[in-house]
Amino acid sequence: MNARLTIARWISIVGHPFSFVVLLVGLAGSKRYGFGGTMRLVGLTAIVLIVPLWIFMWRRWRSGRWKTVDASDSGDRPSFYGVALLLIGLLTGCFAFVEGASFMLRGCAAVAVLMGVAAVLNRWIKLSNHVAFAMFTGVLLSYFALPWGVGVLCLVPPIVWSRLTLARHRWSEVLGGMILGATVAVVTALV
Questions:
Q1: What is the pLDDT of residues 13-50, one digit of tens each?
Q2: Helix %, strand %, coil % for the chain, to 5?
Q3: What is the pTM assigned to this prediction?
Q4: Cα separation, 66 vs 47, whole angstroms
């Protein structure tokens, strides 16, 4: 593998939606809880959402049912979206009953809307979830943690480049991801 593809792959890994979910939960939690409470929220998110979804994705790829581990083929995405939305619902319930973190419920709802819209549109366009989550995170953080928001938004162009370089998406798909992520973030912040 040449250096350009290696760099693109590392940017794609660092800019994975899982990274942005952890960042959002951590920063949102730190605004309301101490270190221990924030770590509980991050741990709960990892146990209920990230680890099960990663295992599902990895098993699909390893079994040969998916072409890539990140469900980059539009045919791989319906099962991905179904499992992701189920786990987001489970995490929402955990936040509601275990933590009582009502502000996290709004975040879960926003992520469910983002994923739901992408799932519906998948029939016509395979939006980049990497780019959508980067934009969602950057724009949303700009409302309550501006330096973090600006930092994440600075990562969007390299993530776009990596998705195009790895041939996971076309320009229309990364631009669609940018629009979806930014729109859901603005609506979330203003509601």
A1: 999 999 999 999 999 888 788 888 889 999 999 999 99
A2: 80, 0, 20
A3: 0.93
A4: 23
